[in-house]
Design a protein that fits this description.
Helix content: 25-40%
Strand content: 35-45%
Number of helices: 2
Number of strands: 5
Largest sheet: 3 strands, antiparallel
Structural class: alpha+beta
Strand order of the largest sheet: 3-4-5
């Protein structure tokens, strides 16, 4: 799983091995994040890993869960 994100002038790429993901969870906190549809993705990989400031996190979580069923 590779997630490329651009926020202002910073580009970030996060990478997690798909077969290590057991569960994905969306976390949104704050009014501004809800209005702009940003949130965090938390992955249960045995130790837990978070990717912050993801646009449309629910759509990403659904896509990841769909791909987890395929693998």
């Amino acid at each position: 799983l590779r997630l490329n994100r651009s926020l202002w002038f910073v580009d970030t790429m996060d990478e997690i091995v798909l077969v290590k993901i057991k569960m994905v969870e969306v976390k949104k906190s704050g009014i501004l994040r809800r209005l702009l549809n940003y949130g965090d993705l938390w992955f249960d990989t045995g130790g837990g890993q978070t990717i912050q400031f993801v646009h449309a996190p629910k759509a990403w979580a659904e896509e990841i869960e769909h791909n987890m069923k395929i693998v």
